[in-house]
Write the structure tokens for this entry.
Amino acid sequence: MNILKRLHTYQAYKGTGLGLGICKKIIERMGGELSFTSEVKKGSVFTVKLPLEYGE
């Protein structure tokens, strides 16, 4: 199962959030990665890693 795939239509659950799927695509286009860990009844931790370019 792909947890980043939309499960329901916009009409079923209205909201203003971007959604994890879109966030993942944006992060990957920036050369980064999105990951997470999750524990039942404790919650989830999402990690975003982006490359950092140093200036001269």
About this structure: Residues 7 and 13 are 10 Å apart (CA to CA).
